[in-house]
Amino acid sequence: MHLQLGTEIVRYGGSTDRVALFRRYLQNRQTWVIPLGGTCWLGTVGFVNAGLELAAQIAAGEIGTPDRIYMANGTMGSVAGLALGLALANLPTEIHAVRVADSRFVKPDVLVKLMRKTAVLLNRLDASFPAELADRSRIVWRDEFYAGGYAAFDDATVGAVNLAREQLDLTLETTYTGKALAALLHDLDDRKLTGSSLFWNTFNSRALPDTAAEHRDLGSLPQEFRRYFE
């Protein structure tokens, strides 16, 4: 896909001299650095809007107010944005953030920091947006469905993916969304659920185009990346 788009591909991490790399590729260039996982305050704003869209659907009577939302929690941008959007709409809904990535990177305090930064920067753009909005969020942190590692899975994850496919006509995967649904199903089986619950599917329903047959010339691919095709 990147070869098709003409993307400049550069190796990052490992033994790479990161300072030298940034100087070479970022200095004096109009470049936005997307951090590991893709989460930043600007990207988080997309899910602030998603929370407001949900609030609009509730106000229109299209859906009742959910007591809980179950959502995969990777680099935390989706959870952070949705929590801010719901708080802005004064909805009492809890977000059950189901951790799917390593706890070295996915932490409650880092999530709070991301929410506060997003709220402050939105407040600078629009003074009607409360800068302290993060303090009004309702998040329940869930660690039990990590299944031992990022992209690892267990019987609960596989069972959730299979149930979604067979009974809900819903395509999930075992890295993110299967774990979030597994949490909801666990609470349902354990009779912990009261009121209504909503499963938020973060798996893209639009398949990427298959370009494998269209672009097999790897000559323009940097040498460091060719081993993935050997």
Kindly state the number of beta strands.
Answer: 4
Question: Structural class of the secondary elements?
Answer: alpha/beta
CATH class: Alpha Beta
Give the H and E element order.
Answer: HHHEHEHEHHEH
User: Which architecture would the CATH scheme give at its second level?
Assistant: 3-Layer(aba) Sandwich
Q: What's the quaternary structure here?
A: single chain
Please bin the fraction of helical residues. 40-55%
Strand order of the largest sheet: 3-2-1-4
Helix run count: 8
Q: Give the overall pLDDT as a whole number.
A: 91
Stretches with pLDDT under 50, minimum 5 residues: none
**Biggest β-sheet description:** 4 strands, parallel
Describe the protein.
This protein has helices spanning 2-5, 18-26, 41-59, 77-88, 108-125, 155-167, 177-189, 223-226, and strands at residues 68-73, 94-99, 139-142, 197-199. The protein is 40% helix and 8% strand. It has one domain (38-199): 3-Layer(aba) Sandwich (Rossmann fold). Helix 4 links the parallel strand 1 and strand 2 (94-99). The longest helix has 19 residues, at 41-59. The protein is of the alpha/beta class. It is globular. The protein has a four-stranded parallel β-sheet, with helices on both faces.
